[in-house]
Amino acid sequence: MLSVRADKWLWAARFYKTRTLAARACELGRVQLAGQPIKPSRELRVGNLLRVSNDGGDFDVEILSLSDERGPAPIAQALYKESAESIERRQQVAAQRRAMAEWEKLPPTRPDKRDRRKIIQFRGRG
């Protein structure tokens, strides 16, 4: 196998849960090859450098192997190599998220009927 579609590879490498989500991410410009957004049908080859943005963060990866079949996670992780800068950046973002969660003030209980009515009225729906 010399090349594989971008949406299939992203799905097989477990960056996205479904091929449809991988294709949608490509269409929205969340997957870049050499700084340029790619289409889902773009043929990827071994050695390509991708930047993938998803809920887990931004990944800078080099393609080591090609696959168009989704397999177990250890096999999927062997398809690419993430750069050290990318790993460090994602860890910093995760640490910032954890720090922000400590300062988040949540109400002690759920809103009762009266509070819900006030919320609805405040939002202009009632």
Give a short summary of the structure.
The protein has 126 residues and is an alpha+beta fold. The chain has helices spanning 6-12, 19-27, 73-77, 84-103, 113-123, and strands at residues 4-5, 31-33, 36-37, 43-44, 49-54, 57-63, 80-82. It is elongated.
Observed structural traits:
126 residues; alpha+beta; Structural Genomics Hypothetical 15.5 Kd Protein In mrcA-pckA Intergenic Region, Chain A; 5-stranded antiparallel sheet; two-stranded antiparallel sheet; elongated
Description:
The protein is an alpha+beta fold and 126 residues long. It has a single domain (4-103), classed as Structural Genomics Hypothetical 15.5 Kd Protein In mrcA-pckA Intergenic Region, Chain A (Roll), CATH 3.10.290.10. 41% of the residues lie in helices and 20% in strands. The strands form two sheets. Strands 3-2-5-6-7 form a five-stranded antiparallel β-sheet. A two-stranded antiparallel sheet has the order 1-4.
| Global morphology | elongated
Strand order of the largest sheet: 3-2-5-6-7
**If helices are DSSP runs of H or I spanning 4 or more residues, what is the number of helices?**
5
Number of domains: 1
* CATH level 1 name: Alpha Beta
Largest sheet: 5 strands, antiparallel
Write the layout of secondary structure elements.
Blueprint lengths: L3 E2 H7 L6 H9 L3 E3 L2 E2 L5 E2 L4 E6 L2 E7 L9 H5 L2 E3 L1 H20 L9 H11 L3
Helix pairs in contact: 1-2
